[in-house]
Amino acid sequence: MFFKNASPITASKPESLNTLSVFDMPPIATKIAVVALAGMLTVFLSTFFSEWRYSTEEKFGSLGWTLFPSNETEERVTIVAIDEQSLSEIGPWPWPRDVLAELSNKLGEAGAALQLYDIVLPESKNGDDLLASVLQQHNSVLAQVPVLGNTNSIQTGTMSGELAGMRCQPPLPSTSNYLANHATFASLPKGHITPIVDADGMIRKQPPLICVQGRVYPSLSLEALLQNLPNKQSEKSIQIAKGSGFFAPAWNLHFPSYFGVKIPLDKEGNVRISYSLQPDAFQVVSAADVLLNRAPSNLLDGAWTLIGATAFGLGDIVPTPHSGATPGVELQARLLTSLLDGDTPYTPTNANIIWLFECFAITAILLLLASSRNRFSAIGLPLAAVILPVITLITHMQFLQSSIWLGWFIPFTYALIAASFLALLEHGRVRVEKQRVFNNLSSYLPGQAAHNIAFNLPSGAVEAHRSELVLMCADLRNFSSYEESRPPEEAAALLHCFFVQASEIIEKNGGQVEEFKGDSVLSSWACDKSDAATMALKAANELQAMISTVIPSRPPAGLEPMALGIAIEKGPTLVGSIGPSHRRSHTILGDTVTITLRIQEMTQELAQPILIGECAARSLSNKELESQGSYLLDGLRTPHILFAPKIIHTAELYDTDPSDKIEVTPLRVISGGKHY
To answer: With contact defined as beta carbons under 8 Å apart, do 158 and 122 qualify?
Structure first.
């Protein structure tokens, strides 16, 4: 090879391609790493944002109850409501003891099988003895309130109704604070109505047993169940044991004397309140109607009655999934219904294994989608980011129909994050591949042509537009003889070096290469810039200075030295693509193209390295140009005046020392031109 001072053969576009290779579509290991990252992020969110996770899971997890509630009427339990009508007709709360005694008598006369009072009577008042006697006669249970989570000492009334023979043990909650009934009512059965209030104010759980000062007290609903078991002594044999089985709860409260009677508890010892029944499913009778003998007898005869406040002003209103203002007595009715049906919802201890199985299934589906190398992947992954999380929520709702609160947050979040990550990965892969296609096309075609091909459907019609351009044709003279006498690899390397460096100079000066044809380069400058011809001339001068560093300093024996002939002309040009839709070709057509090519041929005949057509010369009026005369160019009928710029020295272009000036060697005259 005989290159002088040859620089590395690189170009900007190949470098950009190398940069893009970093973003190639990753292998299956990278996809697995992405879903693993999604799993770690899911664990992070569920661990470090546990309160938010709990409230979100509870809020949306109960949609299976609120969107599709059961409308079957609950006929075993009737709520006797101390409502606004009762306060208006009977008087403001609290009512005198004789009024409460009369209410109990009326319920007894109507045939109520059990009277459960969601009421606490802590103060001593006239008529306590009478009321206690009446309640005792009518199989009644009073409420009391152990206070959980309160640091202040509250000990009002007398706690009673503990479960004999049962000791405090995990997981029962414990407290020393309480609000109880007056000692007059100590002989009556009691049940606590203490709820678990979540951070958002919702009541979703209640402990069936609470330890108060070392004694175990049942809830109102549990005490109602104990009072109606055939063997009331069974309360002495209530046991709490850890659940066994894949779908077992954390704990079970059961009665050994009654096989199959179990109440599932969570790890804190609470039961979950079921909201599967819509609020209208419970039969409600106003206390005023009972006292004034207006209550339908069929709603009370043989029913378990729950007496409690529903009037908004009495303060026993709590938020639930069904409503932001639900009477507290309704919660007791729901707990009682669940115990009677043996259908208390709970979370299995192995719920995490089920979540893991869901996550594995989600992973398999996502990896299958991500492995598709077609539009199914590009469309399927974004759809999966929506559909799969919804499926996890639906799965939770389906389990809820069987009273299993499975939980949905972890598989939902994992599906959302993993599908989103893989969709982004797929989107990035598609973008990188499109960019690679565009870069590859732009390395063969001008940028606008490459853009049209990359982002438009193929067409079989002529697609071209007329533009005013300055064209420059640079031809490597005597290359054919050189190629004939040298190995093809050497000739290709020289031509490649010429094309690479010519492209850099042209693009640096604002032009673009239209095509490489043989050993010549055709480039253009848009005329929307006033200095287009000036920039083309500047590029031509730099090309002449560059060529001496590329061509061999001494030509092979018997060969003419190579040189560069450059022509510049300005005029209207048609740029676009032609050919059938399956084989298009970028083309640049018009008289300006033909004239430029013919002028380039004249550079050899006139022994001028650079020739400029008369149209381009008008845009270079401030330059020192020398007229070369008028010539009838080959194949054309109109003569053209040609101009040549002042001879440019290499040192003038690169500001080197004057002593190092090297004149650009003029082309050798081979044959005369046609002078007109």
So the answer is: no
